[in-house]
Amino acid sequence: MVCIRETKWLRTRLGDYRVPSDCILYGPEWQSIAPITLLPFIDDSDNYYGKVIHEYTKELKSMGVVIDFKDGVDFVAAGLYFPGDPSCITPSNVLALLECFRILLQDRNYSFPDSVRTRISKKWLKTYDGYRPPDQCLLFDSKWGSYLKCTDGPFVDEGFYGSNITSYRKELKAIGVVVDVGNGCPLIASQLDFHLEFSSVVRIYNYLMAFNWEPNCEAAKRIWIPNGSEDGEWVSPGECVLRDKDGLFSSQLQVLEKHYEQQLLVFFSSAFHVKHTPSVDDYCELWKVWEGSGNQLSHADCCKFWAYVLKHWNAKTERTLADSLVKLPVGSDSDGILLSDKQDVFIADDLQLKDLFQRSSPNLYLSVHTIPFATLDVEEVSGSQPAEVHNFVQGKWIESSSWNTILDPLNGEPFIKVAEVDETGIKPFVESLSKCPKHGLHNPFKEPERYLLFGDISAKAAHMLSLPKVSDFFTRLIQRVAPKSYQQALGEVQVTQKFLENFSGDQVRFLARSFAVPGNHLGQQSHGFRWPYGPVAIITPFNFPLEIPVLQLMGALYMGNKPVLKVDSKVSIVMEQMMRLLHYCGLPADDADFINADGKTMNKLLLEANPRMTLFTGSSRVADKLAVDLKGRIKLEDAGFDWKILGPDVQEEDYVAWVCDQDAYACSGQKCSAQSMLFMHEPVANLFPSINVDNLVTTLVQNWSRSSLVSKLKDLAEGRKLEDLTIGPVLTFTTEAMLEHTTKLLQIPGSKLLFGGEPLKNHSIPPIYGALKPTAVYVPLEEMLKAKNYELVTREIFGPFQIITEYTRDQLPMVLDALERMHAHLTAAVEVIGKSVNGTTYAGLRARTTGAPQNHWFGPAGDPRGAGIGTPEAIKLVWSCHREIIYDFGPLPNRWAIPPSS
């Protein structure tokens, strides 16, 4: 028997002799696979064994001959032989081969030999785009269907193979077919050239955008410009521009906004680096076209051209125009403008050009001259035209060896490059601070005229911010980096402007007002003075990119300190532009430094420079670390879990609901003072015995709970829209983190989701940020106070999120206990004043937690490290210390003699 098994004595259809274990007995199972393989079937032809051999199936199997398909799959893999014409391959052939692969892959350690991969790399799979090798094919399913049609790419032809082909997803993936929807971008993009139908091209672009595809070579960088629905042309990105606001380039450039929706414009900018607007070079090329046309220009087109030039005027623009322009505009007796050789042009009065502009557009001349300090155009900052943020030290703007790229919070474009200083680059900042003496740059006895200087600077800066063009510039810039509604961003600018206005004229020196107290004898007096610290540091967060840093920076400067200012890099571009405005208004260049750095680098700078005082606005965790590192030389405005208590009297429900909505959800809840918890008075106990969430807002009974407050609050919250940024990106919490927190809260007995609790829809906010609908969760007061729940319930979520609860009059001590146990005491709106410690507390019907104008103190209480902002008292507390000087000039008493020692 051993001899039979080991001797090559069985003849196969391949014409050779083999041992039994290397042979297959042909049967019906082998019919589908046979046409695409060369397998060692026993020769059952009439010329050899004949069909009678099949009568010995049992005996052959006992010798080792392969009978069943499942036992011979290794032969199939090794014997693959596709015909030269792939159209000869039937669906059953392919399905049989995939079944073979399925059996092979049941062994987790199995991998296709190189010889097999070489054989299957031929064109044998039928797609809607013809026959292709597996790695050039895609498998269509419902996930793909969310973006594309099966004819949009080389998808395996399900109509040819039947729906059963999709059951071999794993096997197709193993041989190289792309089955995951996120991995098909290269193949789909490679098919773009074969599409002429505009709707197909748009579908493909939307798919590529959804998975952040970028072309990997110049050949792939082509954009379809439609001409009707089924015709058009492919052009390079360099021939395109997203927008043409002036309407001048329809003949020179392809303007994409004419053909594509806003979302795809963002995609073209980020993936293809298409310019947002025509460049200076484009305008020069346009002028050359006009020069060569021989036609007159309209006043409107001429003004648009030169308005653009003035808006983008710098040394480079000047050189470009000087090299490019041959002719210049001159007046004519007709309605148009002539172009004449520039050597023949005589400018009799430069006001003539100004007058021409003003007659064409009365606001044009002002619009291009009212922001002399700005180094960017807010609307043009984008992935294709990123803005740059520099550092300022020792009187000059500097770059850095490393750049931190900031993503646009609304669409994910890398739209700002921040020159961040690393630990090796802090030396100039350390040296700059060390040059400032402990007695400051000025004090009541040293250069007191600087108090007047800063009054003048404040007046000029206030005036600049009062100009509509400048105010709009900062409002829109704030919106770009910390998205909030226009009104909220404008409010920040207006508060800053009013603050500067408040400290104009003599008001700065009034901050340094001293006092005198009579002494014990003639000639003795004690005088108290407000004294600067000298070198100081300011660290501010992202949520108020203008208001917080300006108010604290100016407060430090008013009192005679030299500050180094660090603003969160995500928004530091706002303060960089404000520093340029302050320099324009007369701020001495050596008086303040501006640094972009990460937290680790800034911490090292503080330790090496050893500022006499540091103002920190931000998280409690960092605040506590800095307090130790800086040995207590610090003032803090850290986290605030802020609350509102509604007493028993129901009044003006619409107004109270509006205030609660504004406090909780304006700026997407990203205010230090945002309402995090709402206590509603309810005298009836056991309010929620067993109710479903749909009836929750209607079953709140008695007083505020009985009123329609919660339903009104829900309606207001649901009216917030991403389109006007009344709800927007959350910059410090991801969507997943906020939803996870919501889920944990809803596991507390008796808790309910009042509204929200879902991600925003139809947006392009990058996943590193959060996108959550305004959310409120009800938590029973008794459950909140339990030790296992309290930390969770009072965790500050810096986003559109609040806790709502209720209390009875008998439970007021429990409410006060809840407040007492909170770590942060920043702001509150409260009926009970005498038993709470929050720093800025609003009381009364119109009370709010987020009212922080320039006319009152804003800051925490109950902490000796607590800082304030906005008022003379806040500035004196944070940015100066008390210095007592005792004058004692005599005269000596008559007959004075040396007394005995004591």
Layout: helices, strands, pairs:
Layout: H1 2-6, E1 10-11, E2 17-18, H2 57-63, H3 73-78, H4 91-105, H5 114-120, E3 125-127, E4 130-132, H6 142-145, H7 158-161, H8 169-174, H9 185-190, H10 198-210, E5 223-226, E6 232-235, E7 240-241, E8 254-255, H11 262-272, H12 280-293, E9 297-298, H13 299-311, H14 315-324, E10 327-330, E11 336-341, H15 350-360, H16 364-367, E12 387-389, E13 391-393, E14 396-398, E15 402-407, E16 414-420, H17 427-434, H18 449-466, H19 468-481, H20 486-502, H21 507-511, E17 515-518, E18 524-531, E19 535-540, H22 547-558, E20 562-567, H23 572-584, E21 593-595, H24 599-609, E22 613-617, H25 620-629, E23 634-637, E24 642-646, H26 653-665, E25 675-681, H27 703-706, H28 709-718, H29 735-745, E26 752-755, E27 775-778, H30 781-784, H31 787-793, E28 801-807, H32 812-820, E29 827-829, E30 840-842, H33 872-879, E31 881-888
Parallel strand pairs: 7-8, 12-16, 19-20, 19-22, 20-21, 22-23, 24-25, 24-29, 25-28, 27-28, 29-30
Antiparallel strand pairs: 1-2, 3-4, 5-6, 9-11, 10-11, 13-14, 15-16, 17-18, 18-31, 26-27
Organism: Morella rubra (Chinese bayberry)
GO molecular function: aldehyde dehydrogenase (NAD+) activity; L-glutamate gamma-semialdehyde dehydrogenase activity
Pfam family, one: Aldedh
